[in-house]
Amino acid sequence: MSDLFSIFEYQFFQNALAAAILTSVLAAMVGTYIVSRKIVFIGGGITHASFGGIGLAFYMGINPLVGAAIFGILTAVGIEWISEKGKIREDSAIAILWSLGMAMGIIFVFMTPGYTPNLMSFLFGDILSVGALELYLLLAFCLLMIIVFAVFFRPILYTAFDPEFARTKGIPVAGFRYLMSVIMALAIVISIRTIGIILVLSIFTIPQITAMTFTRNFARIMPLAAIWGITGSVAGLLAAYLLDIPPGAAIIFFLTIQFLVIKMIMIIKTHLQRQQ
Amino acid sequence: MSKALVILEGVRTGYFSETVLRDVDLQICPDDFIGVIGPNGGGKTTLIKVILGLQPVFSGKVRFPGGRPKTGYLPQVSQIDKNFPITVKELVNSGLKSKNPWFPHLSFRQLTRVKEMLDEAGLKALSSKPIGELSGGQLQKALLCRALIDRPELLILDEPNTHVDKQFEQELFGWLKELNKEMAILLVSHDIGTISPMIKTIACVNGTLHYHPSNQLSEEVLKVYNCPVDVIAHGPIPHRVLKTHGHE
Q1: What pLDDT score was predicted for residue B40?
Q2: Is A270 on the interface with B (CB under 8 A)?
Q3: Per the domain annotation, does A276 fall within a domain?
Q4: A47 in a domain, yes or no?
Q5: Most-buried pick from A27, A107, A259, B202 (CB within 10 A)?
Q6: What pLDDT is stored for residue B224 in this prediction?
Q7: How many domains does chain A have?
Q8: Residue A47 in 3-state DSSP?
Q9: Is A152 within 8 Å of B96 when comparing Cβ atoms?
Q10: What's the CATH code of the domain at A40?
Q11: ipTM of the shown complex
């Protein structure tokens, strides 16, 4: 047990813990919007398309997160535009951008001279190597999102729920939809370092679905999803240390287990209440 | 005659290059209660969207002589995502128009009005419930509250009597008769028989629009306007539905 506590003394673990908590809070806000609007597939498209940006950034020798952010934003805004104009089926457009991004990433990584040591950390996440600068970036974006959701809560909710009706009330629906597309892309890209491209979507969906077993109120889902995100990711992080397994995968595993246990408890509770 | 709220003149509209409505002339005055009927795909909902400013027109004019009127809109219930995590109170709040649409702040007076309206509609106990827990009638009531909360001059309802039982339908029609004393109403339905007792005039929509200054499509009226309406038995009670239209 003392072995478990001793890990908290290390700077890298403190950073990882802070990254897990901040990513959970960030994903709780943005993920509630994603899950409520039923656009998880769009999130998948953004995530995978951003790999194209990572590949290009490796090839050009710039920060991979910058490349991922550019590709992520272009994909998110592109999907929103296609969905608004309706000239191509939205799901088909997502599939095209999803696979195109991955293909471009593979080509650029292949063309990059020498070995690309960080590639795996972007694919599967590397929470244990998160540095101070990345933490500050996460913290700043988290605070910005708290302000954005607090100030624009109502138009975000109304445009997500019934965009046509919101337009009849003069709300600039297209403006908010594009704003949220950019926010989604940036939140996903910033979280890639913690969880990785392959698994990042889970932290934007599983804690929200867990929270929705308790409440169907948009405003209450966000803090609850943050709590379930933090408990799942901290448990995953500790398990990764104890069992010497990859932290990103361990976090997703614990988020899922947590969801299944809670769901089962709620089903049993409902069943018992019906019997009484 | 009172000043018109909305005037449509020779409107042609549609989606992409496909025309859905053409040569549409319609005038909505403050005390009107217009029943819009027509077959599926005839352009009823498109007409509503033109009036609401949601659908751009290819040609023709949409005019608001006294400025754009305050409009309450009740969409088809099938367009509402019942699984969306929004409470009844927040749903009704969304019907309030704010001075600054980017930073919509609701005043204490507006929030009090929402409480009072939910109370009047018998939804007070459900105000904190998510819409997914409401019955069809309760959801329709909540949506009507949302449409009315901003005290509209024009109320537009798209098939309000679908997914509700007969008892609620009668209750709803009673409210609409009362509301028509204060506002113009445009009610879209595929079923002329059910709505004719309360509407004042009829607009048949099937690619184009034909206005009947009566609440009945009698044989005489049909002859005058050459407007063929077929009797179709669907649902528990056979009723008259506009099936084809002869104005093309």
Answers
A1: 78
A2: no
A3: no
A4: yes
A5: A27
A6: 47
A7: 1
A8: helix
A9: no
A10: 1.10.3470.10
A11: 0.88
